[in-house]
């Protein structure tokens, strides 16, 4: 990746719109991808308890922003 605002980061952010964590996986950050996916899908599965659903929504937005602002190693 060339850095923040690069085309790769834009693609990663768009990937996160379709599947939270996929953008981090595209960037090669496997642990971050797993954490975002688990938090999102775990919270979405328990949406009827309200709080996990809110946490899932926050994780969804955070995953997109995190992929877009990633600066690389």
Structure description:
The protein is mainly α and 73 residues long. It is built from 4 helices and no strands. Helix 1 runs antiparallel to helix 4 and helix 3 (30-45) runs antiparallel to helix 4. The model has no long low-confidence stretch (mean pLDDT 89).
List the helices and strands and how they pair.
Elements: H1 7-18, H2 22-26, H3 30-45, H4 51-69
Task: Write a brief caption for the model.
The protein has 73 residues and is mostly helical. The protein contains four helices and no strands.
Quickly list its features.
73 residues, mainly alpha, 4 helices, elongated
**How does the overall form come out from the CA principal axes?**
elongated
Structural class by helix and strand composition = mainly alpha
Order of helices and strands: HHHH
Residue share in β-strands: under 5%
Number of helices: 4
Low-confidence stretches: none
- Rg, rounded, reads 12 Å
Largest beta-sheet details: none
Mean residue pLDDT: 89
Number of strands: 0
Separation of termini?
9 Å
Oligomer: single chain
Helicity, as a percent range: over 70%
